[in-house]
Amino acid sequence: MQLTNGRLTVYQRVLGMTLCSLPFWIMLNLYEISAGEAIPSKDQYLQTFIVALFSGVMATALFFSATDLARKNEKQLAAVEATQSTEVLFALAGEVIFLGSDLPDIYGITGIALVMLGMTLHSLKN
Fold it and tell me: InterPro entries under this entry (predicted)?
């Protein structure tokens, strides 16, 4: 945000992130193919598409919109950034509800709690 000084729209920023991450995903795909790994099933492609659409595109666009609105107020910006920690809960809920996954074990819950605590404390520090 500081580098572009508001010259890029939310959707341009999302597109930039998508395009800049493509080489990584292509290299990862080529590695998997060269290592002789099995090609993902149709269900895996569907799950990946759902995660990419909801978490990668929609949530990122909403987050960037909120940061643009709050960029001149540090307290508001910290509050917006703290909401990222709740994205973990929404992703988990979506996975359990829509994909039928199991709830995480105690280690997973502890990890989620630590991530949320860390992000919240970091936002409060600013």
Answer: EmrE
Digit-coded pLDDT (tens) for 83-102: 777 777 877 888 888 888 88
Neighbours of 102 (CB within 10 A): 8
Which tens digits make up the pLDDT trace of 37-55? 777 788 888 888 887 887 7
* Burial of 103 per CB tally in 10 Å (0-12, 13-18, 19+): exposed
Region of 6 on the Ramachandran plot (φ > 0 left; ψ -120 to 50 alpha; else beta): left
Distance of CA 50 to the CA centre of its chain: 12
